[in-house]
Amino acid sequence: MELRIEPERSAASGPSRIRMALAALLASWLVTMTAEVRAEQISVEAAAKAAGLAIETGNAGVNGVTIYYRDIGPRAEPVILLHGFPETGDTFARAIATLGKRYRLVVPDLRGAGLSQRASSGYEKKTLATDVKELMDRLQIDRAHVMGHDIGARVAYAFAVQYPERLLSLTVAEAFIEGLAGTAEFKRFAPTNPRTQHFARFARVDEALSEYQGKVEELVLSFMNSRSKSRRFTGDDVTRYTASLGRDGGLRAAFMNYEAFDRDAAFAASADTSGLSKIPALAIVCQSPGGNILQRQLVAAGLKNVKGATLDGCAHWIYEENPEETLAVLTDFLGAANALPK
Question: Chain centroid to CA 208: how far?
Fold first, then answer.
């Protein structure tokens, strides 16, 4: 007797089997694509909403440029937060929940960064400071605590010497203010210091553009991770920064901040600081062999009410490496400044 083996009949035979194979391939592709979707860097807007804080956003025409800003929290004492390079205002996302419960927070993207206009000029810090002053006018803010980090610290200082009557307090963090004490020595050693060699490189704007065009994420990650102690940044952590620099004109605008440093130094060196003698000021640095150079600069400039804070768990990015210690220092300082007669 001949044994015959018949093909198995099932729902998976013939065309059905092909459909199942295609479905499996599609599912596999979807899984792969989902895994490759980039996580979004947390924004100030998302942080405010997560904390249950009221937030308004807008584009303000000020000083000949359009500035994007967030206005967050109760209509209490205003705190203006100014970012650095390669950041946008989103660097302050981790500070929003803590500070926004007590203060009105105004977080702009500085001229040329984030969602603000890429102006062709005006990157001297005194000009960026006037952008901030006119934004305050638009928002009907008479006086504010002004806090700046990195480039934003230089803008905050330029704001202070031009508009001392608009200050409740001044906070500068992780910066060297060109034109103040120590500038000659700083410039002498900057070309050989790995932390400051980029100053001259970025100041040659056209050369820097040729070097970094099309390599924005690589630039941001290299720059941030070479200045980080307690955190290793990945592409997912900096999507907003890379998007900012990647927008048309973003890199040029960023580098023009550095091209303006010599003019910034001349302005700071000749500025009248007499109106700042009694202003509460805070200079924050991450621990380094040089100590709190920023505090020494402010004292030498004639500020008489200067506190210094040195943070352990960071190398530069105080709000992203060490937000807990940073916020403890800030809330203590703001509380003491609030207790002073206005």
Answer: 20
Transcribe 47-109 into DSSP letters: HHHHTT--EEEEEEEETTEEEEEEEES-SSSEEEEE--SS--GGGGHHHHHHHTTTSEEEEEP
**Quick check: 174 and 285 in contact, CB under 8 A?**
yes
- Reading the block at residue 42, the tokens are 């947390």
Write out the H or E segment, with its range, that includes residue 21. Answer: helix 14-36
Please give the angle made by the CA atoms of 34, 35 and 40, to the nearest 5 degrees.
85
Length of the chain: 342
Which positions ≥6 away from 84 have C-beta within 8 Å? 91, 148, 149, 150, 151, 152, 153, 174, 175
Where do the DSSP E strands lie in 90-189?
104-108, 144-149, 167-173
Dist. CA 293–CA 181, nearest whole Å: 9
Q: How far apart are CA 338 and CA 144, in angstroms?
A: 11
212-259 pLDDT per residue, tens: 999 999 999 999 999 999 999 999 999 999 999 999 999 999 999 999
Which secondary-structure segment (H or E) carries 298?
helix 293-300
Residue pLDDT, tens place only, 141-157: 999 999 999 999 999 99
Say what the pTM is.
0.89
